[in-house]
Amino acid sequence: MKINVVESVLKANDAVAQTNRRRMDETGILTINIMSAPGSGKTTLLERTIPALGTDTRCAVLVGDLQTTRDAERLGGVAAQVTQINTGKGCHLSATQVADGLDSLDLNKVDYLFIENVGNMVCPAAVNLGEHLRVVLLSVPEGEDKVAKYPTLFQPADAILLTKIDLSTVLEHNKTKVYEDISRVNSRATLIECSPRTGAGMQDWYDWLQRQRPERAGD
Amino acid sequence: MKINVVESVLKANDAVAQTNRRRMDETGILTINIMSAPGSGKTTLLERTIPALGTDTRCAVLVGDLQTTRDAERLGGVAAQVTQINTGKGCHLSATQVADGLDSLDLNKVDYLFIENVGNMVCPAAVNLGEHLRVVLLSVPEGEDKVAKYPTLFQPADAILLTKIDLSTVLEHNKTKVYEDISRVNSRATLIECSPRTGAGMQDWYDWLQRQRPERAGD
Fold this sequence. Notes:
The structure is a homodimer. By secondary structure, chain A is α/β, with parallel strands linked by helices. The first copy, chain A, has helices at 7-26, 42-52, 70-76, 95-103, 146-149, 151-154, 175-185, 202-217, and strands spanning 30-35, 59-65, 81-86, 112-116, 133-139, 159-163, 190-193. In chain A, strands 3-2-4-1-5-6-7 form a seven-stranded parallel β-sheet, sandwiched between helices. In chain A, helix 7 (175-185) links the parallel strand 6 (159-163) and strand 7. The longest helix of chain A is centred in the N-terminal third of the chain and has 20 residues, at 7-26. The relative contact order of chain A is 0.18. At the A-B interface, helix 1 and helix 5 of A face helix 1 and helix 5 of B.
């Protein structure tokens, strides 16, 4: 068994992704595909981010998991619109699943659409969902070697968030090693150190998010 | 794109896995397939475990990663025989890759063969490598919801290690929630709390490993 990167399957996916993108653009939505290993803090990040963007900013979330609706339940308290997508045995979201997710939302009432992908450092990277931006989380407890081991996840990232930064000291984490590996695979991404739990560095992330919106206004 | 659980592919894999198992049994090797998300501490666990088993216990490691030989380099210092298997874009090891790995080892000089699978909570669970035992790591920083979200990984585990247990207090981790979910999907597995970094609980893990060997002697 290999990851099924059958070209025809990916081509069919890309066609749906393009339709998704058109729907997002027509309604002025900025869509961010958030990817990471399981447990890097994607849901906690969104729990903190959506209230911080303010009541004038309308946020929706599509959240992918193999099973359970736990993340949707957590995010239902902060986002106006949340849809859980269960992938069963699928290790990533597909463009078709996102298309169904878009059908479930009132797109005229969305400024930011966050897609929380399935926790996985391999599969989601290969699959275009129609998103405008890709954000990858890497948490300090995962260690210093993950960028070198999973370069395909980090290569297309627009922003890379080093999360759980509050654990750096206790874990004697060497972020210089991480940054060296990132510079080799992606010199373009914005790097943000933060801890959704303590709030450290979160303003940098909010600022980055808000800087992406004006560029969308002209679409 | 879905995980490619095409039945014929898995059947072909299983045939190779059976051959692997026969080779292990013929040479009296106990093989343990270690699985977890990226960064749960598989390599660190082995770095501590192999020296602790004593010089009379001969250990070999097959270690799977998409790219790099970093884990093999780390383990080369502690294990007599280590082979790195690079899977490219593959999110798990296959029985054929393990067969090639077995070819690279002197099987007559191995008591324990540890297979460190690719860091992934989805793909490796579906693929039999011929191993005798499955050990799954779940680290405290990954949070309380991973057993419910990724049940297929935890269902066939013979032992489940709750790692980085030293971070429980700072992260306000609720292990009761984790154990409730485990009891729903797998009431059979031995549960061990440990921290390879601090040494806490590691003796329980070594004892478990050593209890598995006598049962193999009769094969």
